[in-house]
Design goal:
With 512 residues, this protein is an alpha+beta fold. The protein folds into three domains: 277 residues, no CATH class; 102 residues, no CATH class; 60 residues, Arc Repressor Mutant, subunit A (Orthogonal Bundle), CATH 1.10.10. The protein contains 15 helices and 19 strands. Strands 2, 4, 8, 9, 10, 13, 14, 15, 16 and 17 form a ten-stranded mixed sheet that branches. Helix 10 packs across helix 11. It is elongated and about 100 Å long. The termini are far apart.
Length: 512
């Protein structure tokens, strides 16, 4: 009972950096134990159990993409979205999970104003996938974070609180939602950040989620507890709900770790409860006591049969998976000799990795590390300044590669190359043409360089006399003046040779 659907996917934007706090005040006598639940909206064209289109909540008028099914009207029947199942399988297989060929949807019963049915269709006892792992980079090297479960469910509506009233928009109700639950194996803020950003990168590589944090398409819930170092026991935990940015997640976890440490120091027991995060005060806020599974009265969804998957379809999806970011990162280190840091930065975003590889192919004789350095430092710096992604600029991979090659061949200096790069980002074009039009190429003409040298010697007779009297350290100063006069365009080795030749023939009479 699966509905077929063709997905229209937009190419993800480039993420250029995430600010996060790393000054945790957790006392050294405690060990952090953190697990993350990540809810990711699937990039399908329609909702999980009906034909309503997915719309941008920041642009669409409220309650314009709703129907009898996603609002839970009597007499309606849900139908599973095949593309949502396919996307969920892509993620589960990429995480090396065990796929359940038979899984069951259930009703999770609770009342909240943004839940139109009074229950949420989710998966409980028999999820789509379980097991698996996600490798992350930590200061101590790679660490595998085990995955407890991956399952499908539907999203809720969205509440807005204005002027003493609460309004609800059901455009989001019924949107396919993938929940990925880690084991409580994250031991620091660094690991929390690495896990969340690595998983976001994976979802974008698989093109199942845009990763656009501003639009709330990924939300986090953190289960937080502390224990004495070396202990294997799990202590009482709290759950922080609905964290919609990396910054909020890290601030909330940091605060909660410190709060629990302080309470434990005072002999006050930790209460198992659900918390919210107040961005204004920078504090967690108690919402309700932590529910257990029986509080939701789970039972199999009576309007949906078990989801039975064809093993051949699973194998076909497995074969279609792209090279994953952590696999690509290792290849960059081993085959292209990039540093682990550069490899991680470039592999994190599919758009950046594709750009980098195309640039490397454009200049195969150039060491990939040279292109990598220019990409992650100079080009990223310009993109940050102008607030654009790679796709939104005029630069091509071949243009970057050719510019870097010109620098390596000594045809342009680094300072001038940065200016040329900025011009290419804004206007496009071939680096050689832009260098010629701007007149910033390295000059190797002896006549031109000789004229610059003669000018410097003529303008600085006192320093020349000192040099000729034995103060040879002034050679560097005089050469610097030549390069300054040439606006940095004189070929340095040739300029030095001509300078020394001119000094050997210099006399006050001939240069008066």
């Amino acid at each position: 009972m699966i509905r077929d659907e063709l997905a229209a996917l937009d190419k993800p934007d480039l993420a250029l950096g995430i600010p996060y706090p790393m000054n945790s005040k957790v006392r050294s006598q405690y060990e952090a134990v953190i697990g993350l639940e990540i809810h990711a909206e699937m990039l399908t064209r329609s909702k999980m159990f009906c034909g309503c289109a997915l719309v941008d909540l920041t642009l669409a008028e409220p309650n314009t993409s709703v129907c009898e099914i996603c609002t839970g009207m009597p007499g309606t029947l849900p139908v599973i979205n095949e593309r949502a199942v396919e996307f969920a399988l892509r993620v589960a297989l990429a995480l090396d999970c065990q796929i359940a060929e038979r899984s069951v949807f259930a009703r999770k019963n609770y009342f909240y104003p943004d839940l139109p049915k009074g229950y949420q269709i989710s998966q409980y006892e028999l999820p789509l996938a379980s097991g698996g792992f996600l490798p992350i980079e930590t200061p101590d090297g790679e660490k595998r974070i085990n995955i407890r479960r991956v399952h499908l469910e539907e999203d809720t509506g969205k509440l807005f609180h204005e002027d003493g009233f609460s309004l609800v928009d059901f455009n989001r109700a019924g949107v396919p939602l993938l929940e990925i639950v880690s084991e409580p194996e994250l031991a620091s803020l660094e690991e929390v950040k690495a896990y969340a950003t690595t998983l976001r990168s994976l979802l974008r590589y698989l093109e199942v989620n845009s990763g656009d944090m501003d639009k709330g398409v990924i939300r986090f819930e953190a289960n937080v507890s502390i224990r004495p170092p070396g202990s294997r026991d799990l202590s009482t935990r709290t759950e922080i709900k609905n964290l919609n940015s990396f910054r909020s997640m890290l601030r909330a976890v940091e605060f909660e770790l410190d709060r629990q440490s302080s309470l434990t120091d005072q002999g006050v027991p930790i209460i198992q409860e659900t918390l919210g995060w107040d961005e204004t005060t920078g504090e967690t806020v108690s919402q309700r006591s932590k529910e257990e599974a029986h509080d939701y009265r789970y039972f199999p969804e009576p309007d949906l049969p078990p989801l039975v998957l064809d093993p051949g379809w699973i194998a076909e999806i497995r074969r279609s998976l792209p090279e994953l970011p952590f696999v690509k990162q290792n290849r960059y280190v081993l085959e292209m000799r990039l540093s682990p840091y550069l490899a991680q930065v470039i592999a994190a975003e599919k758009e950046v990795a594709e750009f980098f590889e195309a640039a490397v192919s454009g200049e195969p004789e150039l060491p990939p590390s040279r292109i990598a350095n220019w990409l992650t430092s100079e080009l990223f710096g310009i993109l940050n300044e102008v607030g654009l992604s790679l796709a939104e600029t005029k630069i091509t991979p071949l243009a970057l590669a050719r510019l870097v090659a010109m620098v390596e061949r000594g045809e342009i200096n680094t300072t001038s190359a940065k200016s040329v790069l900025g011009e290419i980002v804004r206007m496009g074009g071939d680096p050689q043409d832009i260098v010629s039009s701007l007149g910033v190429g390295i000059v190797k003409d002896r006549t031109a360089i000789t004229a610059w040298v003669e000018q410097v010697l003529h303008e600085n007779p006192e320093q020349v006399e000192q040099y000729l009297s034995g103060k040879h350290a002034l050679e560097k100063w005089l050469l610097g003046q030549v390069m300054r006069t040439a606006s940095g365009r004189a070929e340095p080795t040739l300029a030095r040779d001509i300078l020394l030749e001119s000094l050997s023939r210099w006399s006050p009479d001939t240069h008066a």
